[in-house]
## 1
Amino acid sequence: MTGMLKGCVALVTGGRGGIGRAICARFLREGATVYAADLSDTGSTGNAPDASRFIQLDVTCEAETRAAMDRIAAEEGRLDVLVNAAGIEIEHTIEQTSLEDWNRIFAINVTGTFLPSKYALPLLRKGAAGGRMASVINFGSYDGFIADPGLAAYCATKGAVHALTRAMACDHGSEGIRVNAICPGYVDTPMLRSFFSGAGSGAGGGSLDTVLDQVKAVHPTRTCGTPEDIANLVNWLASDEARYASGQLWVLDGGLSAQVQQMKF
Amino acid sequence: MTLSGKTAIVTGGGRGIGRATVERLRAAGANVATCGRGARPADLGEAVLWVQADVALGTDAERIVVATRAQFGPADILVNNAGVQVEKPLTDTTDEDWDRVIGANCRGTFNMCRAFIPQAPEGGSIVNLGSISGEVADPSMAIYNASKGFVHALTRSIAIDHGPRIRCNAVRPGWIMTEMVEAGFSLARDPERAREDAVARHAMRRFGRPEDVAEAILWLVSDASGFVTGQCFTIDGGLTSASPLQPGLF
């Protein structure tokens, strides 16, 4: 399927990361004009740039966020799709989490969803003025519903994003702006691999491949997600096919959270 | 917390969570009637009324309420505990399995509520036994899981339709050490290891006890929870708060 976002202008924060990059690639294929915002043009993964327009942006910085919107306003005059995909995780219990780390993860995951959304609103209203609803897609997580051990602050930020998503949907639906959150489970990204090789993950010293195999086995679908799986749903939520979808939290996790903990022996 | 002067019906009080609830409500001062399909258990306290009955049958449900009323006066409290499980995926489930599970868990709850509500005095309280399995799926328990989803939805409907006169809530137990859970573990290839693994998945590092659920039910039927209705309370030692995928368990 191509052309689902033909003529749309989209901004993806974290657009050079594992999942953000896949979203940009999909949006480009669907015919959108895509802005990828990230700390650097190669992102944390060192990927080569793609055809999306790069905006250097720290989503915790109000001035940079306004500047990013000013640039899109000058170049395109409107925004149809905003994807708040920038995020980090900190692998600690609350006891191990410093106040500095706590503030940092809230700044990126929560404030970093708030600021781009706040300053994109005037552009999103212009996008919606064309008769097609504008779409904001936030990044929650299944960790916003049930806890992974040793990820306390991360879980809390994702719960905040879920609540913010519903609030934004209620406040701005009448302006033609839909707001949804996508809540991924385990997606094979550098962030996940870091979690499973991190000292605090309790992965038991097994090789990364062994751990990943065990992770896959716990899923009803017997596989982890890929960034492309996430991009598929983001694309649908961004498109006009999802025009009646708003205020919802879309869990995409291979069935992981549908089950009672699985008997292994 | 006292239930002095109150009368309670607890279905399925022969054993397990039902029996623990019978004893807890008795200890709190309530008159208690209970029922089961078999004969009166020898170890059931003398003061407890036993009605041999099958809640899946509407006439039996009526009979339980009438017998309770004859002995103690109108029933204030109903705990719908009677239930059965069948450990099968959907494609192996027979018509008889369906009738048994849906009969006891769904129709039984329906029958008892329908018989109880008209005679219950102002301030009556119903507690239904749901399950975490009504929210997240236990493998190979398809019809059981579905039956508990029914109970959760019915709980909200009764609360809405019959408030303010009657309150209705549900408890959702997790793995409570009863014969029913033992039957679940018997499906494991290595039941002993499965049991150890399961314990490790609980924040409380133990399985539930029937008394854990009975304490929650006591609160929900007492006046202490007078503003609580239409809710389903999970009592699972933290099991379903955690991801099914806990790296520490590899």
## 2
Amino acid sequence: MKKMSSVILLAGALTLLAAPESQGHHSAAMFDRTTTETVEGTVSKFQWMNPHSWLNVEAPGPDGSMNEYDIELTSPNLLARIGWRPSSLKPGEKVTVVFNPFRDGKKGGRIVSVTKPDGTVLTERGP
Amino acid sequence: MRAGSAPKLAAAMASIAALALAPVSLGFAQETARKSDPPAFDLTGTWWVTQPEGAAGFKPDPPLKPEAQKVVDEVQRLRAEGLNARDKTGTCMPPGLPLIMTRVYPTQIFQTPKLITMIYEYHNAVRWIWMDGRDHPQGEDLIPTYYGHSIGWWEGDSLIVDTVGMHTDPDIQPGVPHTEHLHLRERIRLTDEGFVTEITMTDPTIFERPWVTAKRYKKSDAELQEFVCLQESNQFSEDESGVLRQVAPVKSDDQ
């Protein structure tokens, strides 16, 4: 049911995945761009706001207790240009989120992709 | 571990503040209205800074004096720990000039004979470049602002833009501080894909010699969008040492 995994990605692949805006931006230092984690959970909140948008996902931790993951995305303007809308993710939706984790151990990180049950994949390259 | 970082950064900045009080030669204060050549081009339109240089700060690295280098070194050390420091945009504050040139968002320019207006989508920032022959305000009349006071004139194939009076709150780029003596001289020329602005930054307290850098822009059909940053809903705030800390945002009803 719950699945968490870490995958080492090549630097070249990271360059392709990272949104242009995020290169050298303030948040870059906070995330471990060499690793991804995957969480299956439920959207609790999607905040369409500057300077960065945030997705909150509730998912069971290894011991079965519920955890909330904070996932950072780029700005609303840049998301809108590639097709995202404030309604792209709604509370209650089941999602699988892949992210570069926070380096300080907090739960969550920077978005790599969000996949919905119908197979829709949202990334910072467009939905 | 992190507690030790605060005094170092604060001490380095205190040294810079003290040095900035020393008398310096204010070259820009002597800047007088220039005799302008005819306009060489029209920048009216929408432009986008080119990648990857656009988002990568200003290159090459600045020729820093030792005190300023200490600030840069400390910020780099914090980044290696996964911490951001001295990054005002992360806390929703205006980037100001010249940092706004590193934001990868469109810029809309309106050129008229006596005024060139640049609207940056990022932070809804506006820059007015006065082309009517006026000088910069002098002394107390030069009130610090985030985007400074800009005057411009034409030299052959180039638009020259001279900017002073930039607020010291935002760094030039995170970790590269400046004083109220920061002076920007831009030489803007057309390129095959758009235009390039060669930027010469001087600040006697910070740089050993003028820092020459550039940003390139290409024409875009993007339409600008509103960009409002609300600090009360932002996720990060700066602690006393300039390190960004995540804070719980206010619950928002506008979802």
## 3
Amino acid sequence: MIAEKLREEVYNCIRCGLCMNKCPVYNQLYFEGAAPRGKVQLIKKVLEGKLEPSENFCRMLSLCLLCETCTVNCPSGVALDRLMKAMRAEVSEKFGLPWQKRAMFHLLSSDRLLPFCLFWGRTVGNPLRSLLPADGKVGTIPYHRLPLLNRRPLLNQFPEVVPALGRRVGSVLYFTGCATNYLFENVGRSVIATLTRLGVEVIIPKAQMCCGLPIALSGARKMALKNIRRNLEIFSRDDVDAVIVDCASCGSALKKEYTHILEELGENAEAARTLGKRVLDVAEYLSRFELEKFLRPLPGRVTYHDPCHLVRSQGVREEPRSLLKRIPELEFVEMEGPDVCCGGGGTFQWEHPEVAAGITRNKIKAIADTGAQFVASGCPGCRLQIYGSLDTDAIQVLHPVELVAMALERRLS
Amino acid sequence: MLRQEVLEQFISVVGPDRCKTSPEDLLTYGYDACIYEYVPDAVLFPKSTQEAADIMRIASAEHVFVTPRGAGSGLVAEALAKHGGAVVCFTMMNRILEINTANRYAVVEPGVVISELQKAVDKVGLFYPPDPGSAAVATMGGAVAMNAGGMRGVKYGVTRDYLLGLEIVLPSGEVMVTGTVTAKDVTGYDLTRLICGSEGTLALVTRINVRLLPKPKTKRTLQAVYNSIDDAGTTVSRIVEAGIIPATLELMDKTVIKAVEEFSQLGLPLDAEAILLVDVDGGPESVETEAALIADFCRTQGAREVRVSLSEKENELLWSARRSAFGAVARLRPTCMIEDATVPVSYLTSAIKKVIEICGRNRVQVGVLAHAGDGNLHPLILCDQRDKAEMERVERAMDEIVDYALSVGGTLSGEHGIGIPKSKYLPKQLSETSLSMMRAIKRAFDPSGILNPGSFLEQRGS
């Protein structure tokens, strides 16, 4: 059952409705059940025993990106996203999850199965991708705009300890996350290249697992516990300066979701709280350094998309921008509504492709209006969604740290 | 419950997706922003006048109750299906049809959110002034039905003052146009203004023509900080007496300041007893002169500090903080009953004192917020709906506040409307003749009483 303290939250919703017009999903659908206020009121009825959770109720709960826009805009301070997540956990126990999700989460929570499947995915899947029907899609994303799997997982490309170049000024643990490990190796390579170039030793624990966030956010919290415990065990070390994350979602998991989940399941959350304080997004960590003396000009124009899990979950807004602004000759242009969700929302875009497509259309237009050739965003989910919805190759979607690494390498070459 | 064949008729008009009947959907249309709950039997979302007319024709033939609704941010249950039936919700009929810069008017569908219209006209150098606290959620249709007021009332008036014409659907399903798009129009009875503020009892509004103003060239926001709420009240009277008309003139007491600051983190003074937020707008020169004059007034009336905002962004932050006040007080207690009695502005100081005295005597927690410039009090009575004894004390306090407002020539409600919570007071303000005229008007529009039954007109006596 939902934790007592969280249950009281429903009574703090005064139903003013200020969450509605800011909700990306409501702005596509325009009915109350799609809006945060509607969901909180339904959760209240369920908690009061006046509404039996039904399939339809589950569907309404799933109609939420968990972008946290409502939470940060709620004048009454209702923790809407936490209520939503806790309720999803509640109903997923009763109704179960669709088989696709169950299969995926089973993979993500397993040490052996995931590398095994991804090996075959690489060997067979990558070459076969071109044989898939041209008009086929996963949710909103056409097959031909899905990323290929890394040749080898990033974790296998580097030793456990990558030494600093030159004088060592620091040491960090690097949580790579699944996306960097299996899909976007260049992000990981850029993180490692940049940090070591700045004199930071990078330790990449080999036994790390998926952060568990996708599993927990869909409601399968207990399934995610294995991942949480393992990662807590590995990353709870105080002989380093920080734990670095390049993925907004992993960052939000390590910084606060672990604590919330353990607390709400009535488990000891002390280790999670301690770890949470030591985790930094790579942009936050890099802002400590005087990058200017390392960076060479990178002519072009860049715009920045705020990942929900970075700007709202972690409150990181300025650091990634300032990284980009420090790159010489790279013009920074702000898009309209940079912190509006891209519409991806993890599995949201697969469950509600039409709603997601409407939200993403606005984002793509905002990006195109800037005339930038680079969109920077520190979230693989946003990257999948934005790249997958672009109909041009003239715009590249990159992690801010990839642009930093590009500017760094110019000097070395 | 609606009969299946009636539902099928509705579905034939709007399609299955825009006719919602699941228990979950119905529950989410059972509330607005106050404490009452009435669950409807169906929720229909028309997207055109034709659909709205067809819905009313079916409802009329089948004698189905219909309650119109916008975003559901109202405060008096006006948009709730008090006797069941169908809610007709206009949020999906939300296009801005025209912004005419040559003649300075706009034509909108009822589901357009007020702040979206404001943004759109701002882009072409125009200005739609009515600005209720809920502008970021409330719809234009709702604003017309409730004659929404807001913070700019003191200088610019309320929704009523910007309506040029409407297209409405009568309960019979007939479509009728009122007014025009011209600034002057004395052809026949002014039915536009009759519909405005009718709380959805006379007709569905399907198109709205509003007058626009040129955008003021500059704006300045002043924040005067007081150690005494009386001094803040007196300042307001003095500003009005002096013939200065600020664009907004808002008062917040320390309870409200605390809640708003907790949400907005703007650095509002938590040790102050009250602050006045004042906007002056217009040409650059007059704005400078008036801002200086008002700052002076505030100081001589005991303001310990007057801050002038330095940028448009800061103005924006301050006002969005003010707009959050209603929601923000929920941080203090779960329920907030927002009073709306309005007094002639010269009574403002004594009215504030009286409200505090009444609430103290009834052991009710209150935060004072006021559209001070037009005497529109908004005491926020903080309570917990689940506590019956407390709610009885709240009710008593509200009775007394109303009695006081009426005793000095004020009104029951400045802008929120009568709906359920104030209907019992109606006979205190309106004579039997006046009420029977209103009922006759209602009968003329809606002879079989299918539109918004249970509304303010069916008052239960005090």
## 4
Amino acid sequence: MGLDEKVQAARERLDAHVREMVEWHFNPESGCKFWLDHAAKLDFDPREKIHGYDDLRILGHFEDEWLRGGPVRRWVPKALADQPLYVFETGGSTGLPKSRVNIRDFQTDYELFSDTLSDETFPRGADWLMLGPTGPRRLRLAIEHLAQHRGGIAFHVDLDPRWVNRMIKAGNHQGLQDYKDHVTDQGLKILRGHDNVQCLFTTPKLLEALCEKVSLSKLGIKGIFCGGTEMNAQFNRFAREELVPGVDFIPTYGNTLMGLACCKPYDPADNYAITYYAPAPRAIFEIVDPDDPERLVDYDEVGRVMLTTLTKEFFMPRFLERDEGVRARPIEPYPWDGVTNLGLLTQLSDSVVVGVY
Amino acid sequence: MLHIPVLRRGEPYRSLNVNVLKDIRTGEPVTEVSQANPGLIVRDLARVGEARRELEAFSVAELLEICKRAADLFLNGDLPVGDDSQSPDDYVRGLSATTGLPEALARKNMTKSHYVLDEMETVLGGLTRGLDLEILDRGWGSQQGRRVSYRRETDVLGAVLPSNSPGVHALWLPAIPLKVTLALKPGRQEPWTPHRIAQAFIAAGCPRSAFGFYPTDYAGAGEILQRTDRCLLYGDTTTVSKWRAKPGVQIHGPGWSKVVVAGGEAERWQDHLEIMAASVADNGGRSCVNASGVWTTSNGRAIAEALAERLAQIEALPLDHPDAKLAAMPSLEAAQKLSDYIDARLGAGAEDVTARFRPEGRVAEAGGCAFVLPTVIHCADSSHELAHAEFLFPFVSVVEVERDALLERMGPSLVVSAVTDDRELMQEILTATNVERLNLGSMPTSHVSWDQPHEGNLFEHLYRQRAIAGPGIAA
């Protein structure tokens, strides 16, 4: 099948998935209180009007403010009400954190992601170190599940990003350095004490801090999965050329609302530019005009990321992210639109302190 | 497009993250500037010991020769910028286009850096009070019959530099002949001068590895400040306040420089009008040594009126005009915003005396640029906010206070030109803890003697006298 046909097939799969999810979330037998209440205020029945992805437009844009505060059970689909529940926070730099309930989505997301990892550099049965934000986030459980799914054990060291942001705001440079040392020292103890740790998840800042102290390849690390707001082409290059040459370095973009996007496989022709593809049809993003989100920008043009999440656990149509990037063409393994050079939305970048950890 | 690279141990490095600087007149791109990611700076700083050893292989005398050659190359040479070659005119035009400094003032500042490089031996003589510089090569020696030895406090001097005036770069130049390597973070709009100085040094025979040149963001600047044992930090009050507590960071915040006219000289104020005008308006009022206050014990109103009339003659001219004396603001909106900020604080004892002499208003346009015209405020109240304000254009508040309250009320000052026949007051100023540089007599605050320390002595910042004794030392 050529790429065009794959794109067409993926699109048909997306449209069918949209119909299935809309039926699920707006059916009083299976849907959650939030969406059923929302539907009651509409002058149409979404199940009748929405036949594919493009029709989601009539629902407008999801507002993440709806996720602030409780009761969180209003988000639990009736058909899943008897399942064990997780709640994960997102944001939290300002005001009351936003929460998303989760049942098994994070496990599914990371199992799908696992399929994209190389068995040579992320060996089956190898153990993992996760050095990054744990706490009330999805990430710790997700990485642990990824390790377990691949037959390994995950060791954890926590980093509290809200504390880091507090120190940055206070200009407490020494405190920041001490905290970074505190976190990396714990990580190094694990790496030195457990021979089978061959895979690492961490943030760009912590990767730098670790590499200041040791050679990760000498300590047996073969694959690194790295995510965070500092990730960009220059960091990708710096990591591959200088920090961890010879180690498989996989940048990722994920969040509690979407799940985990995959990175286009490394190709020297890209000059280290990072392109992400959402895990369609469970989530999909479009790159839209920041001043007119109804307009998709052309390929190779910069726009705002508009994210749609479509799982049985969570329905989030057309949410405008705080991120922008270049609209990228579909590729063989991911025959739908991607985004290159993802970064904080220019309009916001002066006013938001994010993730300098 | 022209590309200004990062310099890593003196080697050009093109980053995948670039910042484009635009001509403030047209918005047209002038140059790309490679941006160093913070981790790259950290990695380089970890290896700086090797570079210092290469520099230390030279004697101070050899490095002074290199300074002389670098002086000439900086002023007259064609020097590399990325893959291109930069003539002195290219440098002046680029600098003027992205910072708004008139070309004539850019050239004048070039001569300052040239002078310091060319006369480095005199400059070091001033900073070390005449130390036999071979002592730094040998490690110890005799000075006036006493054994002396100095310990270098760092392998690298970090410098987080401003964009306001290229003259400030003269201050870190002595580091090289003092055998300390550099990690420079240029101001966002002004990568031009530190890059050109580094290239002049390299072309003059200085080891390339002595130069780290890192255009970067706030986090990158933080790494330089955090990880160098000695550093210079230029910035506004908010920026510098977060680093005051860290030892080894020498702070260069706002100058709040002042002309003090007191006693009988305050009666003869007309004799000092020119030095007051020069203090305020030299170099477009952009330097920390420009006066933002004239503090007097009498005739405040008359001084303000006369100074206003005199400074109102300075016109807004295009940046390439040979007589241009004012630097342009980044945009008309920025100029208007600054002007509105001042207007919002007038009244309550503060009056813009210049308004009468320039009926068209404080904001002007010329040659595609916006300017804020020189402004003289008469402050009846010495605690008024504008009596303690400082802006990046010729701005001065004239404040009349009682003699006994003067020193305390005027607050901290980088430079004071003290024009007074009041011997006791002069003595009080000499012993005051809130005055850094001091000119005694009728002299502009903007006058700089390069053989004198500036806001801290760089030699003392980089070296510390150590006790030395023992049979291994010949008398």
